[in-house]
Structures are given as structure tokens and as C-alpha cells.
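Notes continue from the previous slide.

Worked example: a multi-chain complex. Inputs as given:
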Amino acid sequence: MTAEIISVGTELLLGNILNTNAQYLSRELADLGITVQRESTIGDNQGRLADFVNEAKARCDLLVFTGGLGPTADDLTKETVAACYGDTLAFDEEEWAKITRYFARSGRETTPNNRKQAMVPVHGRKIVNHHGTAPGAWFEQDGRCAVLMPGVPSEMKAMWTESIRPLLLERQNCTLHSITLRVLGGESNLEYQVRDLLDHANPTAAIYCKTGECEIRITARAASDEDGEKMCRAYARKFYDLLGDAVYDEDVAGLEETVVRTLKEKGLTVSTAESCTGGMIAERITAVSGSSEVFGYGFVTYWEQAKAKLVGVDPDVIARYNVVSAPVAAQMALGAAKASGSDIAVSVTGVAGPTGGDAVRPVGTVYLGAARGKTVYVKKLFVSRPDRALVRARAAQAALELVLRLAQGRTPAGTKPLTAAQQHDTAVLDALDAAFLSE
Amino acid sequence: MTAEIISVGTELLLGNILNTNAQYLSRELADLGITVQRESTIGDNQGRLADFVNEAKARCDLLVFTGGLGPTADDLTKETVAACYGDTLAFDEEEWAKITRYFARSGRETTPNNRKQAMVPVHGRKIVNHHGTAPGAWFEQDGRCAVLMPGVPSEMKAMWTESIRPLLLERQNCTLHSITLRVLGGESNLEYQVRDLLDHANPTAAIYCKTGECEIRITARAASDEDGEKMCRAYARKFYDLLGDAVYDEDVAGLEETVVRTLKEKGLTVSTAESCTGGMIAERITAVSGSSEVFGYGFVTYWEQAKAKLVGVDPDVIARYNVVSAPVAAQMALGAAKASGSDIAVSVTGVAGPTGGDAVRPVGTVYLGAARGKTVYVKKLFVSRPDRALVRARAAQAALELVLRLAQGRTPAGTKPLTAAQQHDTAVLDALDAAFLSE
């Protein structure tokens, strides 16, 4: 089965809004085993819309439209597509009552134009919009179909998952099951490692890279959801075998969600002491609903005085090793745990740039500390692209990874340990500092 | 002049990457006064590419391609477009030497396929790529043009600004000047206020809405940059007259940049005490390079104990008024200023949701405090859409606005003042609390 995605809207052609609908629908159609051959964006008011639709209809089985369902006179998408599929529109009392109620609730009155939105296919079917005023439409002729959905992403996605995807699955007489693996690690390296597993028909597997991690989505089409789940699980096993515990979770929104859940499961709490990330780690943890069970205190210690006052870093240690150093990261984490009484504490001190770097500590140099009990684990990170936002994002990601490993009761990879008792021992700190500087 | 934008790449049709190039080019072409009629995304390997190009060429003056310049055998975009514009390609020794050097630097060897990338137009012109291996191409026939650029956004944008935009300006015998106004305020309301000013040919004005603010970009085409600047300035005046000081700055990346610059200019420092925003305000401030001049201390006081311990909120005040209340926001801000020694301090306490709301404080209820000297200004914010990320983002934006107004020496709009001496006076706090609860 082949498809084209058509986004309707002059505001898209002007670049006023970013078209995220097309990407969403591309992924969804790929999951369904439907090949997207072309994506187009056209204006609301294009005289040649009918020509376009007729050509596209001849090229493929399914046309997926978003946008163009507005009440203004120049929104002719629904009428035009109906005609191309040998259909017409009729006024729908039920939809009109819904639109009228919607306006009444927000204290407005409908205009005659709004009646357009209550027009629905005579031969095809209307698609109920549970999240807005404009219903969608489904047209069909000689086995070729067209579906019209609203342009507002939240309305479109809801209509897609509630109505259109089930309809397409029913026609293919199958169900879909997906597992999304979340994997820690650099993009190009990871993509290279798994490349052979990405070329598969059913289940399909696709990789989406983000900062410091990737998402691998495995999707199976099967006769039953149970079969689909088994197929996904078996295929996921291949990724686990290849990637080991770099796969940190499944079907979560991000590392912070896994961190919060793991801390909850273990009955642990965490606190943060941040310099170059400036609050980003705390912000990510608290983005998770329910994080107040595991997180109570965060320190943004941007100045050296703040590091001393809030988390007890020794000013002499800063003077001796530099503020961006392993001993300072260690003291920040131990100090945050002490000041907050948390079970685990994580710290970051680094040079985010663009200024402030030197030969010993170029922009992108970051030290992290993660304390649990009487031990702190220190790690050095270097981000070679001198991009302030990237350095901060990678540092926050590395910090969350440290917290996860400590919560899991494991020694985080690539770290050097120091005990709380050693944190003021100059000989030990000298050795720690030297070990990192020679890396 | 009319144009179409064509993005080439199977990975786009699969939804593996989000197409941001099309939006960028749409805006740029609109600035140049060129009407974008259609945007298309097609696969790398499409047999009907020539048909598509011939049709599109007949429809408009300029075709702007991104992607399809890779070294693999099925990347036929350059050859196909050349043929459609009556041109051919020839091997370019200079480009080949560049590609070979590029590979050598990264320790790799070129493959025979890479020679394809060194092929350049015979009649048209090659476009030098200063940021990658693949040169771009410009083809022209009977006054109709096509330009091919790389798909990687950073390479594409560099090639556009360094080579293609100047070429198009030269043909139009003009220069471009832009001013981007940053405006505080809700989206739909603002769009409505300025709607009449957006319909203008030269300068053009376009509005792009973000969370809690909008960007208005004014662009003039003129014979000289001086004329363009004057035209933009005169048109910008109309927006200032309409919007007043909701326009908070020009040509900045965001409110945090203006806040940091203003604090620097005034020689002031700021600190933060955050509950529901969880570090987001500090994170935004420290995203600005050089923010360490004005920001040293941030407190993420997620728990009630943290509010007491770190910024001195009286537990009795929490018990009496609720942790999400005007008195608590006031004490948090005054306490943060005291604990850090900053000139200004801002605080946030609210119900971000999705759980935790009740009839008196539904999800989306946020109190903010902003202290300067002996006075704290308290504000209530209500975000009606119960979306955790949105509530937090709107709260952080409102907090930065309070800091800006205090740094400017002004009383922030919509706030109620309280003095430091009154912060433990139950009668005064009762009245403050009641005044907000009745809002």
C-alpha cells in the first residue's frame, strides 16, 4: 500500500509554523507497513488543488491530508477532495449542534461560515473530532482512499490514533504492537552498531537520535496483539544482546523518568549541585510528575562562594585544583548529600563556553561527581563540539546516568572512587586530580 | 517571483528526521519577496524525479532543493536536475582535492563513489560548501533557476546565507534588512492585536509565537542597507505604538538574554528560589554566556523542609496559608536574596500537575515573588491548560519578566507589594493571601 501526505496551509508555506505533522504521520504510516512516496505542502487557496489531488490520487492508494478544514470561505479542501473522489457533502445536524455548543461554552457566537465545518461526506464517512470543532472526513472511490484531518497537531494526533489508525488496521486485518528502547550513547556510533538490525520488514526497527541517547522503535504487524508483542520482544532481544545495558529502559519519555522510577522503587532520594548545567539536572528530574517523592533539594552553585556556602566546598581546594576539577566535583556531591540529607547526590562543574577555556581545560571539559553513602564517584566528560547548549545538555545527561547507576546499586562506568574521609586529604586529591589531567 | 522547495531523502519520508530546512527556507524566501507555492519531500531513489522536476520547473521560477547530494549510487538528484535544465556535469579537480583532504584529515579513504560529489555544472555554477564535502549547484535555463544544497541543516544554512541569498539579492538588485521584535504576551491575543500590520508588502512583518511570548520579524528590501534599516525602523515604530513595553527587546535569543544584559548594565545580581519550576529559571539564566557576572546562587526548594532550610520560609506560614500561596512566594524571594546576598531574587511556588490540584488551587495555579531591596512583589499566575510542561514554562517566563522589570527599576504589572518587615506580620499576610484568593 502506498500513500502521500499533504499538509494544507499558507502559514506553512510562509514558514510561520514548523510542520511536525508530516513527520508524525510518516512514522505512523511506516509502522502500518504503508510506503510514503511523497509529502507536499500546499496553500489554502490554491486554484489548482483539484489538479493536484487528481494526480496524487492516480499515483497512490491513500492520501492523508492535514489542515484546510477551517471555517473561512477560501478553505475549499474538503469540497475539492470530495469531488475528486466522486463524493459530495451534506449538512450534519449533530456536528452543527456540537459546534454551536462549543462556541457557547467559550462565550462566542457562531458565524454563517462555521456551518461549512458541519458539512460531512455523503458516501464516505465523517470522522468525529473529540478535541475540536472541525470533524474529519474519509472519502473512497475504486479502492483509493483519502482522509482529511485537522491541522492542529493535538487534534490531528488524537483523531489519527482514535479513528484513522484503527480503520486502516481493520482493513489490513491486523494489529500493531510497538516497543521503544531507550539507549544511552553517541549517535553515529550507535547507528553503526545496530545498522544490520534496522533493515527488516516485520517487525520494523527505526532509530531516532537525540542528545546523548537514541530511541529504537520496534513495531510488529500481527494478527493479534499477543503475537505482535511476542514478535517485538524477540526482535528487541537482538538489540539487548548487541547493546547490553546501554539500553536503559523501554517506553519512557526520557532518562529522567527512569531515574525517578528507579529511585522510587529503591526508596532512595537524590539531590543536585550544579555549576555549568545551572539547574538543568534538577529541571529534568522535576519535569517528571511525582518526582517530589525522590527529590527535595537542588543547589545551583554558579559562583565559587556558592560552592563553599551551600555545599561546603573548601576554597583552598578550588585554589589548588581549579574550580573545574575532580576534587571540586567530589566535594560538591558529598556536600550536597550532607546539606540535603539525600541518599544520592550528583554534581557538575565544567567549562560550557564559548569563553573560559584554556589549554588544560578547553571548552567542553566537565567533571561530574556522584555520591552515595560514604563514597563519591568522579567522572570526566569532554564534549568536542564547543557549543554551550550541547555541553550543558550532555553534562546533564551524564549526571542522570550516574544517578541511575548508583540507584541500581552499581559502580558507574568510567569513574574513579573517593571516600568521604579522603575528600580533604591533599595527597589523595593530588593523585585523583593528576589521574584525570593525564587522561 | 515564485518558488518551490524540494527536500530529497528517504529518511524524511520514513519520519526518521524532522524537516526543519523547509521552514527555514520558507521564511528566507518570504523575506526576499519570493512566493513559495509548494513544498515537497521526495525519496532519493525516485524513478519519476525527472517528471517531477519538469512539472515543477514549468510551475515556477525557482526550485530550491536540499539533500540528495550524497555519494551513493542512487543519489541521482544532481544529474537529473542538470538534465532538466539543459546542463551536464563535469569532474572538478579543485572540489576533488578538497574532498580528498577532508577524508585524509579524518583518517579515512575516499571511495570511487565520492568522485560523484566532485561533479559540478558545466553551464551553471558550482556553489562552494565551506562546511562539508558536497558542493552545491546552480542551474539556469530560459530565466528559470534551480539551486541544490546539502541536506544537513548547518551546511545548508551556511551555503544559503554565504552564497545563495547574496546571489538572489544581486539579481533583484537590492539588499535585505531585518529587525526581530521580542514581545511578551499570550499568542492569540497578540496575533489579533497586530493582525493589520502583518499584511504588508515591504517591509514584510511575520509573527512567530512561542510559550508566553512572540517574535515579530520585520524585513525590508531596499537599494541600500541604510534605506532598509530606516524602513524597518519606521515600521517597527508602529508595533511599539501598538504594543508599548510588551516589546521587551530586539534581535535577542530570548528573555533570559535581555534579563542578563539589563542586570549587567545596572550592575545588579539575581538569585532564584524555585519550587514547581524545579531549576528552569536558573537554567535559562545560565544558558546565557557571561551570566556568571549577574547570577551566583540558585535554590531548588522542592520540599517544604528545603524552603525552610535554604531560604528561611517559616513552616507556620506554610501551615497557615498552604505551600502554594502568596505569603510563601514572598518569603522564598526575600529569603533567597538574604541567603545569597543578591540585589534581586525571584521565587516560584505552584501546582504544575497533573496531580495535586484542588478547588482552591487547581492545577496551573502559580505564585511568584520578586524581591528588590526591602520590598517583594507578589503575583499570581493561572495557566488554564493543565499541562505540566506548559505550566512550568509559563511560570519561568513570568519569573524572568518580573526580574527584568525590577532590574529596570519599575514596579512589575499585576503584582502586590509587601515589605521585608511585613513578611512575618500575620495580619498583613492574611490580607495579602485573601486578596489573591479572591482574584
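Summary box: Residues 153-172 of chain A form the longest helix (20 residues). The longest strand of chain A covers residues 175-184.
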